[in-house]
């Protein structure tokens, strides 16, 4: 079905957004109640809202910078398997989370595999330099 993947992505996005909203509300309440122990409640509310406004401003500036393309992208291919994985997971963070969960499960089931994978990631490139 053509739209099934799109619908799954939309549902996953809404679930992630809802979870992020709940987490931010819980964090805000925690910060407020911790500040309310030290300062009057009105000041705690002002400090909490100011803190979250600064966080929102920082996040907005990061995304605006990315939208304008100020981030320099490397033209060269990363030389090791580890560097390729880092760049792939930077471009696609959900893929990184899924790979980490799957890798953790596999490593719990077979610890010898963990040593082989670690050796592959730390192995130096065998290409000769000129």
TrEMBL record:
It comes from the Bacteria. Keywords: Membrane, Transmembrane, Transmembrane helix. Pfam families: Phage_holin_3_6 (PF07332). The chain crosses the membrane at residues 12-35, 42-64, 94-121. This is Uncharacterized protein. It comes from Brevundimonas pondensis.
